[in-house]
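sorry for the late reply, my laptop died twice this morning and i had to redo everyting from scratch. anyway the thing you sent over, i finally got around to it. pasting the sequence first so we're on the same page, its 113 residues, then the predicted structure underneath. double check i copied it right bc i was rushing
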Amino acid sequence: MFDKLAIVGPSDLVLAFRSLGIKIFSPKNLDEARRVLEGVEKENFALCFLHESFYQALVEEREALSHKFCPVLVGYSDYRKITDYLEEMTRDMAIKATGSDSLVKGRGKDETR
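ok and here's the structure:
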């Protein structure tokens, strides 16, 4: 029976899903991600969300799984890159407009948005 859901991605992003009973995987590199996908297939997961950092790199593995009924692989993005880009762009505009970036509050290492 296919009744399992898996999420593969960076640990800081997927850890909260564990509290919902969802099986999470946080591979450190591509080889680990390949092994995770093999495990997802063997354990009969129905649906697997795969983070964009692995989605493009694992084309062959995704193609092999696409011929099977399950698991269904779905790619997802966390939009961190775009927010970092927008922050940098805003900072550049502030420097051009005022000569300083002091008006643009930066986020500290442990701060959240």
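DSSP finds five helices and four strands in the chain.
thats about all i looked at so far, will dig more tmrw
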